[in-house]
Amino acid sequence: MTHSDRTIVHLMRHGEVHNPAGVLYGRLPDYHLSDLGRQMAERGAEFFAEADVAHLVASPLERAQETMEPIAKTLGLSVMTDPRVIEAGNQFEGKTFGVGDGSLRHPGVWWRLRNPSKPSWGEPYKEIAARMFAAMADARDAARGREAVIVSHQLPVWVARLTVERRRYLHDPRRRQCSLASVTSVTYDGDVPVAVAYNEPAGDLIPAKLRKKFVGGA
Fold first, then answer.
1. Within a domain: residue 51?
2. Residue (of 117, 187, 211, 105) closest to 159 by Cα position
3. Is 123 helix (H, G, I), strand (E, B) or coil?
């Protein structure tokens, strides 16, 4: 593979969000990075500072845009907002699932959990994969022979990785290798994705309790 045939599309998850109520915020507006989340975003800028990045893309949600800000400033590049890399749709958006909340204990919501392989409670994995791959292909073409960065969300990034690696979509969300401000890098040989690498530029900033927390979408 020659250098001109090699393009890398980095999929970065946003940093920690200020969410004291612990709701599943999904696509809801006005959820911004916490102070820790902004530190994580700065780590992302440091991670890409010496990379050959030519193209930046971010989800339209505030937390993704704010994660991209220091990266764009460091690299001196403009940011394209792409709705195709937005958080996955989820019917539990706005609800909480913490101890004592009992959201999933109500029989009225059980029917939404009937098919975890689709999943029945939200945007189908196949649709997430299709929109993410379309956005990744456009980013690859815009950065041909160099690198692109897309700031997105946990589930879209994870589904994109499962697709590249030809793994099944049914999975335990607690086992996703996609921590806060992590970077999943997809290498293309021409137009074909051939390798995946994973890094955690802000890994040491993540509190142990957040690593263990169930995250259905963020």
1. yes
2. 117
3. coil
Q: Which residue has the tokens 């590049």?
A: 77
Residue 160 lies in a domain: yes
Over the stretch 114-155, which tens digit does the pLDDT of each residue have?
556 677 567 899 999 999 999 999 999 999 999 999 999 999
CATH number at residue 52: 3.40.50.1240
What's the pTM value of the predicted model, to 2 decimals?
A: 0.89
What would the two tokens of residue 98 be? Answer: 């913490």
Q: Which two tokens stand for residue 192?
A: 């074909």
Please indicate whether residue 4 or residue 24 has the higher confidence score (pLDDT). 24
**β-pairing verdict for 183-189 and 6-13:** antiparallel
Residue 102: give the domain boundaries: 3-212
Quick check: is 218 in a domain? no
- Domain count within the chain: 1
Torsion of CA 7, 155, 151, 197, to 10 degrees: -40
**For residue 214, how far is the Cα from the chain centroid?**
15
Residue 102 forms part of a structural domain: yes
Is 205 in a helix, a strand, or coil?
A: helix
Question: Can you name the residues that pair with 199 across neighbouring β-strands?
Answer: 183
CA 179-183-186 angle, to 5 degrees, is 130
Phi, psi of 155 (to 5 degrees): -65, -45
Please, which residues have CB within 8 angstroms of residue 100's CB and are 6 or more apart in sequence? none
Half-sphere exposure in the Cβ direction for 106 (13 Å, CA)? 11
